[in-house]
């Protein structure tokens, strides 16, 4: 009976893992295509991001309340001095990363966005070395060369290349490197009590809103206040349509964080990293098939080279964390326009 139970148990675990990965894909791929679709008619990405932050904060507040009622233990709330000094830098970097990423959808294709965002691994590695979160390793040079050369090949002679959008995503990736380094430091400080991603998300959103709001006023404030899609609508149905579509995006963003947390807690951060690699492939294939993105043979080859660099980084991280070499601390693996965005990789969870 024990031997019969083993294959059955293995099959159940495998099906559960596949189900959790597919659940994660629905939100991760869905929010990328949804935001791109929304940006075709609604040209206010910063306003959209601000509304998403409000929605995510509301959901995280309700989740914290439910967790407190369930466990009977109060959730952590940081004092103002610690909150402003420790959380503010991470919140500002996160707000700029997400804001610029969403903004770029006005200019570039999903395929170019996906590839350029993958370069965030380079900046994460760089700042992790600067902050001594990861020890120097010769193989990291190969990782950097593969990802950088892959990105160059992908953008080479691209017929749908847009310099303005490309610079926005590249800048977002650079800021994302700072963001993830600061996030890891923030979550690894046990005295702050922010090991749970829901608590981290709850504390980040208000400061993210305040950090992004001046940029919104400067670039979109007047346009939003005079647009017929929101404040100068002629029919109530148009206003409701705008609010509903924006709210759905916020729910997708929160759902992405929840699905990531669920996937890692029931499997491992390695599963999330590997699933993220295949997600990039699925995103590109869907963009070519349904969004009209055009890719040459050189572009596809560049994509393959970039993925090989990311895969090598995941493999090295797994190898060293098993005690086969110098210890490399867990690095959050980058993803587009989600407030948790793999924060769970910093949390020591058990399967």
Automatic annotation (TrEMBL):
It is a multi-pass membrane protein. Its main location: membrane. Keywords: Membrane, Transmembrane, Transmembrane helix. It comes from the Eukaryota. The chain crosses the membrane at residues 14-34, 46-67, 115-133, 139-156, 163-182, 202-218, 239-258, 270-288, 300-320. Residues 18-312 form the Sugar phosphate transporter domain. It is found in: Membrane. GO terms for cellular component: membrane. PANTHER family: SOLUTE CARRIER FAMILY 35. This is Sugar phosphate transporter domain-containing protein. The lineage of its organism: Eukaryota, Metazoa, Chordata, Craniata, Vertebrata.
